Amino acid sequence: MERSRRTLLAAGLAAALAAGLGACASSEERNSRSEGQFTDDAALTAKVKSAIATDAGARTASAVNVDTYRGVVQLTGFVDSEDQATRAVSAAKKVQGVRSVKNDIRLKR
Asked: To 5 degrees, how large is the angle CA 5–CA 9–CA 12?
């Protein structure tokens, strides 16, 4: 009787573990990028950074961080003026392949 009880407990734990891992894998799959998507995002990040340097200036480009995830660009950092922030966002939006731009640029105070 003790042996069958342990076997049943082990089977139950194994089933619970398998179900838990399955849930983690599907969640991770939705949030992860393929190697191609990662490469595309890296290339898009470089293009946006270059566009900001060209359109808003090297000083603005060095103050703005660019992160890209599946074509969505997030701009962060601190700039001296609202004009610099506006020009950086405008430059990012012009880059082919950018789906949207999240502007989290802040003004230095």
From this structure: 140
Q: Dihedral sign, CA of 80, 83, 86, 88?
A: negative
What is d(CA 94, CA 105) in angstroms, rounded to the nearest whole number? 18
Average pLDDT over residues 64-81: 96
Question: What is the pTM for the complete model shown?
Answer: 0.70
Distance CA 54, CA 7 (A): 68
Q: Which of 77, 49, 45 is nearest to 61 (CA)?
A: 49
Alpha helices, DSSP H only, in 32-96?
A: 35-56, 58-63, 82-94
